[in-house]
Amino acid sequence: MKKYLVTGGAGFIGSNFILYMLKKYDDILLVNLDKLTYAGNLENLDSVKDDSRHVFVQGDICDKELVSDLFDKYDFDYVINFAAESHVDRSIANPEIFVETNVMGTVNLIQTAKEHWLCDKQWKKGCKYLQVSTDEVYGSLGKEGFFTETTPITPHSPYSSSKASADHFVRAFHDTYGLPINITRCSNNYGSFQFVEKLIPLMIYNAMNHKSLPVYGDGMQIRDWLYVEDHCKAIDMVCSDGKNGEVYNVGGHNEHPNIFIVKTIISRLSERLNDPEINENLIKHVEDRLGHDRRYGIDPTKVKNDLGWYPETPFELGIVKTIDWYLDNPVWVEHVTSGDYQNYYEKMYGSKI
Ligand code: NAD
Ligand code: TYD
Predict the structure, then answer these.
(1) Which residues have C-beta atoms less than 6 Å from ligand 1?
(2) pLDDT tier, 351 (very low <50, low <70, confident <90, very high otherwise)
(3) Between helices 258-273 and 199-208, what is the axis angle to 10°?
(4) Nearest ligand to residue 293 Cα
(5) Is the pLDDT of residue 304 over 90?
(6) What single string gives the DSSP state of each residue in 160-195?
(7) H helices within the chain, ranges in order?
(8) Under a CB-based contact definition with an 8 Å cutoff, are residues 245 and 174 in contact?
(9) Cα–Cα distance measured from residue 273 to residue 91, given in angstroms and rounded to the nearest whole number
(10) What is the distance in A from the centroid of ligand 1 to the CA of 317?
(11) Which of 16, 25, 32, 110 gives the lowest tally of CB atoms within 10 Å of its CB?
């Protein structure tokens, strides 16, 4: 039986990954270490709460003693690190916690993995540390070209700088000590369980409540959208078959300007609810994000050629599934948009939600 330490498994991508893995494999143990910050929500895992293949532990990836105790107890084969502070706007307002979790937390995980996996100069057979990173470490593209695995690392935001720093430490542990690793750098994910602060769920939530849709600047910034289940499949493939030490870029090959995404959500949602009040008059261009990256786009050739992975879900299907998920889960939506989120929204957008 393969034993995984999955960190951040109560967040958006981590919880999708746990559900994906439990569906796919019988003989597996997933220990989910999550601090349950504002972005972590155990309701995401309600459907597997009685499944003995998933063990939830509330705690911090920076907690050395706790992480070490978990290694002692479970003798992990793999660590997959999803845990992070993940929102660019929050990193602009408050960068310190990004250094703490994204950099210090990662260093704690790889250092503890090394202490447990390296014995008499031999690494535990088959062990691997997988760092879930982001294409944002490469910085911003002009009109032409794509990010490849050899694009220079040039992060612009405090968030992407903290992720880039973590990537450097992971690679350094491979180069210096021989820690078996992979780094995946994915593009913008969308799908079920994404916290409402991010573009797609925020636009769905505001539009269904007839609230204004805050588009930063001219809305012509481009992101490469990847359906979260396709991403989970890629992580599983990299973890099982990725070549030791390699970086894999995982993208949707699906670039769109933000304004296109917002207009698509308006159109699909108004159709779905038969509600003419959901229309483009809700769009409000607001002040641009500081240091806003203009374009991200991934060339997924390497992960396709080496591992046979490609993004399977067309955007037209993925966005409708995502909109339906938010409409079908009002209790989840109510929970994540109450309390602290109200204060965050008011501070961020200058109006009550
Ligand atoms: P998320 O914010 O939804 O979830 C993060 C999870 O980590 C939460 O459950 C939170 O409670 C947990 N966490 C935070 N700090 C912790 C700590 N110190 N110790 C333990 N747990 C902690 O994030 P996400 O969107 O699921 O992203 C997962 C990973 O993928 C992150 O590393 C992120 O940088 C990366 N990523 C995300 C995207 C995206 O589009 N969402 C794109 C590229 C890369
Ligand atoms: P986001 O979902 O925060 O992801 P990232 O910054 O990691 O790409 O934002 C996606 C794009 O949407 C980004 O260009 C910023 C833009 N955006 C808005 O225009 N309005 C918003 O309210 C938010 C949250 C994002």
Answers:
(1) 7-8, 10-14, 33-37, 39-40, 60-62, 82-86, 101, 105, 132, 134, 163, 186, 188-189, 195
(2) confident
(3) 40
(4) 2
(5) yes
(6) HHHHHHHHHHHHHHHHHH---EEEEEE-EEESTT--
(7) 12-24, 64-74, 88-93, 96-98, 106-117, 158-177, 199-208, 228-241, 258-273, 301-307, 315-328, 330-337, 340-349
(8) yes
(9) 35
(10) 25
(11) 25
From residue 272, give the alpha-carbon distance in Å to each of 133, 155, 211, 320, 327. Answer: 34, 39, 17, 9, 10
Q: Can you give the pTM of this predicted structure?
A: 0.98
> Taking 90 as the threshold, does the pLDDT of residue 339 lie above it?
no
| Ligand 1 center to 83 CA (angstroms) | 4
User: pLDDT-derived band of residue 322, with 50, 70 and 90 as boundaries?
Assistant: very high
Q: Percent of the chain scored above 70 by pLDDT? A: 100
Angle at 235 between CA 234 and CA 240, to 5 degrees: 100
